[in-house]
């Protein structure tokens, strides 16, 4: 598995280099749906990743934000789950909060992860049972015991959460989860339906760094599902996870029922 993980890391780095070369240049951009931006570089990176990853592991299926879904993936034991540029808004705006996200999912769970954020000079790697690394150095989630004062990547906080501390918020949800993995944040929560490709790689990185990661209701996450979606994500320092679930419970239940 280590040899395969190294090959995935090299492919993710190649994709990140392509995205970095095209960053802040003149490229086409549009909206797939209102509020969902995409650019031609998303598609270029997606094509590169698909060529390289399918050649690396021909029996694995494919799930990507920028490729039409092939439901045959549901019969596959292994599937690549890819977001060619997570944080496209930041990419288009010339901000560094974006990353190339690649995960190999096996039997419903990520087992290899590579997250490349070249505009931030960051690489994140994980392999199931082997820990997580940032720029080659092992990382661990924080050992915070109290929810009050927890650091959260956010631009603003609702009144009920004003006892938390805001820290830098990249547009990429994967990078926000990775911040928890590296102990740069204590809590990341979303309370909405999201796609597996946004979080698959970062979830493994966070888990391998000792963070606790669930959906917004505190339930286990699964991947390569028919909908390719999960109801939110909650990544925390392990000792504050139960308190975070309790705090989010009413909001999460209201959102999932809407």
Provide key terms for this protein.
seven-stranded mixed beta sheet, single chain, 14 strands, 258 residues, three-stranded antiparallel beta sheet
What does it look like?
The protein is built from six helices and 14 strands. A hairpin with a 4-residue loop joins strand 6 and strand 7. 32% of the residues lie in helices and 29% in strands. By secondary structure, the protein is of the alpha+beta class. Helix 1 packs antiparallel against helix 2 and helix 4 runs parallel beside helix 5. The strands form four sheets. It has a seven-stranded mixed sheet with strand order 3-4-5-6-7-8-9, with helices on both faces. Strands 12-14-13 form a three-stranded antiparallel sheet.
What is shown here, in short?
By secondary structure, this protein is an alpha+beta fold. Helices cover 32% and strands 29% of the residues. The longest helix has 21 residues, at 2-22.
Radius of gyration: 17 Å
User: Whole-Å distance between the termini?
Assistant: 42 Å
H and E string:
HEEHEEHEEEEEEEHEHEEH
Largest beta-sheet details: 7 strands, mixed
Per DSSP, what share of the residues sits in E-state strands of 2 or more residues?
Answer: 25-35%
- Content-based structural category: alpha+beta
Low-pLDDT runs of 5+ residues are none
Mean pLDDT: 96
Number of beta-strand segments = 14
Sum up the overall morphology in one term: globular
Helix-residue proportion: 25-40%
Q: Tally the helices: what do you get?
A: 6
Biggest sheet strand order reads 3-4-5-6-7-8-9
Topology record:
Layout: H1 2-22, E1 29-33, E2 36-39, H2 40-56, E3 61-64, E4 78-86, H3 88-93, E5 99-106, E6 109-117, E7 122-127, E8 132-134, E9 137-138, E10 151-153, E11 165-167, H4 173-181, E12 187-195, H5 196-208, E13 212-214, E14 229-236, H6 241-256
Helix pairs in contact: 1-2, 4-5
